[in-house]
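Lab meeting minutes (informal)
Scribe: AK
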Amino acid sequence: MSRDFQRQRVYDAEHLLAYFYDTAVEIGNPVITVGGVTLTLPPEAKFGSVESVQSYVDRVRALPSLAHHPRAAIPVTVRARSGDRKAHYENARAVIAVPDGRNRWAMRELVILHELAHHLAWGERHGPRFAIAYLELLGAELGPETELAQRILFDDHEVNYQVKEVCHV
């Protein structure tokens, strides 16, 4: 398996977007400025159960805007995982595992879309195809403002989301 060369950059950029969302809720003002661009963040869903995450994932996978992803048609199972430290995606079984204990940090839309991006970009951990899938999911579910904010943060953190296509002549 290849080295996950931009994992930390992706996480740093995503954590900053989550911080913007958390701060917007805390102060009651969804307007942010990122990279000199002023945006209004739409509300982010928070989930109360693994079952509600499962319903959300099933609905998102069925979006017409994701039909070009062959893996969008493949079902994903959402399960609770022990421990509160992280959520993850299991490639071999198409499973998203989220902690649903007392510390419910992972029961939020940004985290679930991150894990679903792993499903769409199967086999690529945090590389360009993953980053593109995540941006698409953000745009489809949280709107173009959130996608643009994450794109700017990806640029600031030097996350590569450009896929070079090979042309066979």
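Next up, CB showed the second protein from the same session:
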Amino acid sequence: MSWIDYYGLLVCFWLLLCLLMISTKKTRALGLSLSFSTSVLFIGLTILQDHYGANVSYQLNKKEKFLEAMKSEEVTLNLTPSSWIQEIDGRGSNSIIPLKYRKQIGIAFPLGAAPNVKTFYCSEDDGFISYVTDRFGFRNEDDRWNSSAHDILILGDSFAESACIPTALQTTFSENLNVVSLGKGGNGPLSSLATFIEYNNRFKARIVYFLVVSNDYSRPTSHSLAIDLERELLEPELSKYLDESDNIQDYFNEQYLEHYKTFAVEHSKLLANTSLESDFTHLLRAISRIAFYDFFKSIVISQGSGNVNKTLRFIDRVALEQVYSKAIQTADNSSSKLIFVPLPDKASACNHDVKKLFIDDLLGGLNANVLDIWGDLCYGKFFANSGGHFNQLGYKFLADRIEADFLEN
């Protein structure tokens, strides 16, 4: 069971205790007092929760919205590369797509989502958003691929995919610039490297901006999820991009992806219609949501987020250097310029953040090109109130700084 289930048990125990006290004459007054206090607390939390936008039933809302969308059109969930990695961490086995389906669709390792289909994504300040993928399964206007050369290529994870906002960040660039993004939520450095290598097999970009987020290379010690690169290195098909100089699966070939869309639609239906929890677990989680587990959790996280010296674990430095060195080499071989863009997360400090010190030192040791805008973006105004990604203002600021750097270069 997860922490939310234990919390549900605790709430059940507390309510049972109150009932027992009420049923006993000697403790009835205290039981009534505790019951009244608990009711007032939960009502007060409801008001606060509505005011601050806490999302206590995200997955249930997402499932409901997705099932509703399925009734009127063809739609899929956002099947990201991270869901194809077989290594299980805090995501749980239900988030992993079984290995057998790679053989079914004929793809060694999917680097994008399903192509040419409406894709259901995430929700933060703007409600649940969806977008139609391009011919390769990424969040771009499809006509960007009519040219084999692009001015700007953006690599990275959900930040590069413009997570949870209605309009992709690359659409805010000047119209005369041809900008594409190959970002996918959950990507770590190795998935981004693999995508870059495959892209260079058929296309070319003048300047490549590699967005680097802290979960690529670090996690809080107590975090249930693995560091992104840590998990990627355990995937044989991704490791080939490091170990084999000529490893290519010809991913940016429309015919190669023709079976992916069919699979994604059917698999998304299966996930949406399958109950992954027992009735007892479902009951505990319902009680936990009623009792504001997520609200309490968000309070704890926000109180701890200002402590930039909290215990962190970092990826093996040599492993990360190997990935970034291969990315630099890949750019050099295609006469592109590669620029790394370290980004703060919502809990980051502007100065002396240990995550920034780690990544700055590592990139400095590689003599890599860096666009340093961490200090400019580390303010709360650039992040969603009800999530960890940038809001519209943050993404626009990021796009403006990248465009200014491109014009300068």
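CB comment: The longest strand covers residues 204-213.
No objections, moving on.
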